[in-house]
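The data layer described in this paper is built around a simple, fixed record for each protein. We quote a single record here, exactly as it is kept in our systems:
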Amino acid sequence: MTLLECAKYYLSRGWMPVPVPRGKKKPVSDDWPKLRLTEADLPEHFSNGSNVGLILGEASGGLVDGDLDCDEARDMAPQYLPSTPAKTGRPSAPESHWWYYAEVPRTRQFRDPVTKEMIIELRSTGGQTIVGPSIHPEGEQYSILTGEPARVPGPMLLACVEALYQAVLKKRYPNGVPQPEKKKESPPAATTPSDQSAEMVERRAVAYLDKVPSAISGQGGHATTYVAAVALVHGFCLSPDRALQLLLECYNPRCQPPWTEKELRHKVDDAAAKPHDKPYGWLRDAAPDQDPQDEVDISALLPQKQRDVAKDDRPKDPGLFPERLLDCGGLLAQITEYDNIKSFKRQPELALAAAIALVGVITGRKVRDEFDTRTNVYCLGVCRSGGGKERARLSNKEILFQAGLEKMVGPEGLASHAGLISAVHAQPATLFQLDEIGRLLRTLSNPSKAPHLYHIATVLMRLFTSSNSVYIGDAYADVKRNKAINQPHACLYGSTGPQALFEALTVESLTDGFVSRLLVFETTDHDPEPQKPATSDVPRPVLDVVRWWGDFKPGGNLSSETPQPIIIPYTEAASEVMEQLEHRARAERQKSKNDAVVTVWTRTTEKARKLALIHACSLNHEKPVVDVASATWAAELSEFITRKMLFLAAEWISDGLFDAKQKKLLRAIREAGGKISRSDFYNLTRSLTPRERTELIDNLLETGQVALVSTPTATKTRIEYVLQ
């Protein structure tokens, strides 16, 4: 075909061609990403011998190009990249472009960390690739793209490309990528300890304080006062008590209105506890005869810095449950679909959570991975009352009963921890399905409210961590009550309303390990449209697979007493996915000083490995393997759940009464669509005094959590508070 005929051919397949000068690889115009040619436009652009490129991503229906820029990547690509009939290249680099349809939001480049040369480039929206019969700058002709690109989930494709990249690096650097030599830094200049008397330092501190602007309500007063506190405590190294006294005597009288002693104490405590940009004692160690006016850098006051830090530290909302994670295939998908068609109100997120718990229990004590991870999971479905959260539990019971595995269905009410232990002792692989579990969660931070529920949560935690060993129960004088269970496998599917879960979130409940191990699934639609439930029985393929797992006894007839679970292998690419997840989780742990955050991230990889096992057993019950698809799905789901949990914790866990009021107001603004009018703000804060109300909104404005927006209307100016 001629170049023009090829351009028409590409356009007919839904791919957007772009003209490129012959022998070149880049379009001439900078606006080429916006180019959208019709068939009538093509003769004008492709009749003069130009090369033809394809605009990737959104312009071509999700077409992406895996550009393999080195021999190692091309040699190993078949081992790592998903198979696709669409491959192009040129004589010296055959099959150097692998084509797919995938949701990849932007181009990703993978370079050699030492030479900086490109190894792999996954091109998408914003990128283009030259295709045949174009001519390469070296004179070679590109092959024409004729095959049908394979359709691959975006996260899976990214994981495969990342795995190929890591494999190339291992081949190039078998002993590890060499680290660049650190530049030798000059030793810091010697400093002379301050020989100033305490009286002189304090006198200079008071002179400095005189130059700090007065705190005026509504005009940055909170930040200005905080700067004054930082100067005294961190700059002049005064004790918090002495700094407070100076603020009360020398600064507070000119504030409008004056602060209470409690409010100033809070500022001083923050100044003493939080990190700062400047070194400790920077004002004390400055030249004693320096003019205090010169020491006060008003332009560097902290509101903007506070705002930046506040934004950086706040966990980002990962959004609604990703719909792509619901399409998981295998037995999980079949159970989820059965639950959905039987529901009066479809709740696919809850259906998936319950399905994961069900597959977790039927594979219990029968499979593990090389890290001895087991499939015992604790899943929690979150939905408002009347939203349809009971259907998932009913579906699980129907499936287990019709498959002849009703012994795996645990009691629906737990009156005591002893009853829980007895149930697992009688049937070590048991699925507990508990409604309104929020009351149990709340006891984790306050055991005195319901000691028996707290003991149940404690036993659930111990059973969870004993799944690959032996659970030893409490010792009683009555020897018959002493329970020992070899590899207990308790799975849990609980449900609760959002408020009950959110109120249960405390630093204590996260760090004790139980809540951090929960797989929390919150519904996207808390009150979906009703539908007519199907009357069909459990599908035969579902029952066949569930029965197969019920009959499967690795280790023979003694498997119930001495389980010998088979080891489910990982592919190399799947292992890479898990390693990358652990790298991300470790990085998050290292940059946080919050114990709750560290605890939740610590469990992320463990959750992912459990989910990967369950997914692999769901896809192929006879020969399960954790491949890149299972690993990618599990890693993405686990990371989403982690980020959602941390976002909710940041929204609800408060540091004192003032912080609780702030977060309550922020939640109200978010529920109102991200903004409220000034009149609505006053209605929400009716219980506060004018001073408390002013302090509340001032702090939100100064930390950048809320912005004040004025909009002129025909009659007046509308003022709104908008979330940032």
Notes: Residues 628-652 form the longest helix (25 residues). The domain at 3-172 is CATH 3.30.2250 (Prim-pol fold). The CA atoms of residues 588 and 601 lie 7 Å apart.
